[in-house]
Design brief:
Layout lengths: L1 E2 L10 H9 L10 H11 L6 H19 L6 E2 L4 E4 L2 E2 L2 E2 L5 E6 L2 E4 L8 H20 L12 H10 L39 H11 L19 H4 L1 H10 L4 E3 L9 E3 L5 E7 L4 E5 L4 E5 L7 E4 L2
Antiparallel strand pairs: 1-2, 3-6, 4-5, 6-7, 8-13, 9-10, 9-13, 10-11, 11-12
Helix pairs in contact: 1-4, 2-3, 3-4, 5-6
The structure holds zinc ion.
Amino acid sequence: MNTTLKAKKVEDLPYVKGMLKKVNLSDFSYESKAKTDEAVAKTNNGKFNNEQVANVSKNIDFRLSGLKQYINQAADNNFYLKVTADLSNDAIVQGSIKILAENLDIYVPVEKLLPKSSAEMEAEGSNDMQFVIEEQESGYSLSLCGDYNPSDARYYSSIYSTNPTDCHDHGTSCGIYQDREWWNNYAYNYYAELCHNDCADLVSQALSYGGLPEDGTWYATKYTSTRSLTWVNTGYLKNYMTGNDYWRTTTYSSATEGAVMYTASNHVVMIAQNDTITHQYNGHTNDRYRANFSDSPSFVYYKLW
Ligand SMILES: [Zn+2]
């Protein structure tokens, strides 16, 4: 599909309405930083210091500036559907047709991928804003990944992802959808040991491109096939990133472009879009470009800012 938001400005999005209501702002002007600061300061009965107020305001500005890019912007929105039906005497049994949608590495009824109601999205915005306020109350600093540019990371994961219908190495026999000719083979030579399992490798490359600093534990040597275990192994990657406070757990609704997510089977992908209504990811194993997904209790989201 190719979809465009109905909202003509970010304040029309139910999610943003919920966010702004939480801090008693009915609208938002990019020029009125003082007004935002004043409203934020009041939300916590004046208990926030100046730095905390600035951090909450920065968070609001970050989210709304990020959303602005999606207004009046048509974008590809890819779904993978599986249709099943029972057969009787070579005929389809009426009422037995089921349409399932791929949701990362699980299948869900296709209805699960429809947008949530306005009320639900407004509640998401309100809850996420509450989370930002509580994060400041607990003294969270926003500066840990100061050099990380989520848009750059998203860009990288987008240009090296595609939507193949079979496997480059094994055709249809392995059941994996992978086209490694599309990968960044120039800078990161193919790492044969990984075979299909390139999901952490892609996410690491994108994080590095986005500005996250490599070190003696998390690294890849460019123009060779050398990668550290922490770079290519999903479990090691998660332990390293959370252990160094680069990643913080977040919600489905506040995981925006450049954030990462894990499934229950330890598959990792990068968020490509979250305009509050449409959520997409890029990934390898299976290779996926701007694939739609919905929340699941088995998914875990991490943000880097
Ligand atoms: Zn294969």
